[in-house]
Amino acid sequence: MFPKLIADLHTHTLASTHAYSTLQEMVQAASAIGLYAIAITDHGRSMPGAPGKWYFENMGIIPSHWMGVRVIKGIEANITDYYGTLDVDEFTTSSLEWVIASIHRETLPWRDDIDAVTNTYIQVAKNPLVNVIGHSGHEAYKYDYEKVIPIFGDYGKLVEINEATFNVRKESVANCVKIAELCKRHGVGVVVNSDAHFQMLVGKAPRALQMLEEIGFPSELIINADARKMQNYFAQHNIEI
Fold first, then answer.
1. pLDDT of the residue at 1
2. What value does the mean pLDDT of the chain take?
3. Phi, psi for 35 (deg, rounded to 5)
4. CA separation, residue 74 to residues 93, 109, 114 (Å)
5. Span 5-14, pLDDT tens digits
6. pTM
7. Which of 51, 163, 178, 197 supports an S-S bond with 205, CB 3.0-4.6 Å?
8. How is residue 224 annotated by DSSP?
9. What CA–CA distance (Å, rounded) separates 48 from 41?
């Protein structure tokens, strides 16, 4: 049987003003379904309606363990140009434990240029602040998957398989399949996340997991489906277990 997730490492609270649940409600939801960990990853400040800089710099006041759940303080940073620049600085990330780097239409002007997007992701791969490459199958921002996926692996970046894509970015699903197949081929670790913007969605990624099962994706490459794998990753990146 395909494994269940033990952690949801991409979620949003109402601090991102297009989300609808408090931090406490998100942690309660994770606790209710027995998750080991949840990452709170509200949007970086270039996203309309995102929380301010101090929101992230003050996250240290949040308990690391709450209601039996490991609460990981993070951010979904936006890629803001074709040089791989993120809307988060090193000082801010010093208060955080988890950085997802994502492209959104709202924060990166569209350019019909696969080479430019390819270079963007290569630069992001080289950024030591980044843990996860967020939902990179976006149809409008295609890149050279064959070239870049091994580079993600070389730099130790986890590639996200994002459940929300199957709902809000359906045109991108075929690209996500290609990305997953290449991660399988090159042994690149992935994280399967809900990208939940409401508490009832925490920890739920049925379509993403079904897709991985259909392509015969090896469960040992899903970092947040195995406690040992995830704890090893945390230890290697100086994240408290």
1. 64
2. 96
3. -70, 145
4. 8, 25, 29
5. 999 999 999 9
6. 0.97
7. 163
8. G
9. 15
